[in-house]
Amino acid sequence: MAGVCAVTGATGFLGRNLVRVLAAEGWRVRALARRDPVAAFGEAQAEVTIGGLDRAALAKLCRGAEVLVHVAGLVKAPNRRAFDAVNVEGARLAAEAARAAGARMVLVSSLAAREPQLSDYAASKRAGETAAAAVLGDKLSVVRPPAIYGPGDRETLTIFRFAARSPLLPVFDPRARIALIHVEDAARQIAAAAAFAPAKPCVALSDACPEGYSWREIVQAAACAVGSRGRAMRTPAGVLALAGLVGSLSQKFGARPILTLGKSRELRWPDWALGGEERWESAPPAKFTLNEGFGHTVGWWRASRVML
After folding, report:
1. Largest CA-CA distance found in the chain, in angstroms, rounded
2. pLDDT tens digit sequence for 93-118
3. Residue boundaries of the structural domains of the chain
């Protein structure tokens, strides 16, 4: 590739990896950032546009671009209004900037958008898809990653720390299936969507197991990665609900909890597997299996001298 690919959310967990992949594949990458992201992209070369999700910055970002990959979004917020301000209005403004520049847009949404009734986050991601589609029509491609993990992700770091320290590992609904993807695989698949729009307007991403994993498989893989012999134990889903309630209440006092009522509903949903209609069959194959991906992530944290 020799064209310009504009990227929002470029300094985040997924965005940093995406910029590196795009640059390696020959794109001229233009990244939106609120401040100069010193060393954020490693050796990858990227032109930086300073600004936020406002019309002026987005217009500058998209000028002359062939495609805009809109990664920016909130995963934590105290209420629906705060989520919508970024996940809906930000998607709309990004789509308008792409349209004005004559660019295609790849909107990085979330598999949670498939079930918008579960949480404010999920509802805002679905509404963001709708808002962008209303602006761009068939010049929009929506990609929905499942839960993303990998080096540098502090959300899943909590899981590895728990697996390393607890003799008992919780297993929730034994029927549940949860799709997952390593961040490097997610970045490569999104980069492919930037280069060639998928035939379907909305596709879900996954590793080599689109049917997802059971809770037991996930906690056992985490324990194996950290060298723990923790025993998997069936845990009532009500424990998640109670923890979510406590987290939501703590938000009223300014806390930013990992688990809220909405997030607990997402975690208790039994079907995060990919259905045939949403699978992207021609996506680049995943490099990491679950065990390899968890091992790679834990190895990175240990090399970074982070205590597990």
Report:
1. 56
2. 999 999 999 999 999 999 999 999 99
3. 4-144
